[in-house]
User: Fold this.
Amino acid sequence: MVIFLLLVLAAIILGIIGATVKGLLYLLFIGIVVLLVALLVSGLRVSRRAKRRPVR
Assistant:
């Protein structure tokens, strides 16, 4: 969970810097990629957890 939150925070910071500073638009795109990776990692963890046998 901590990794997910750090990745989302990094994506937000990179996106803000990339959108506001002239000439650093590539940071916005890097932030979008980092956000997508964070969502992918989170989705994989949830799906892996759902495949386990339920507790009785």
Q: What stands out?
A: Residues 26 and 56 are 50 Å apart (CA to CA). The chain has a mean pLDDT of 84. DSSP finds two helices and no strands in the chain.
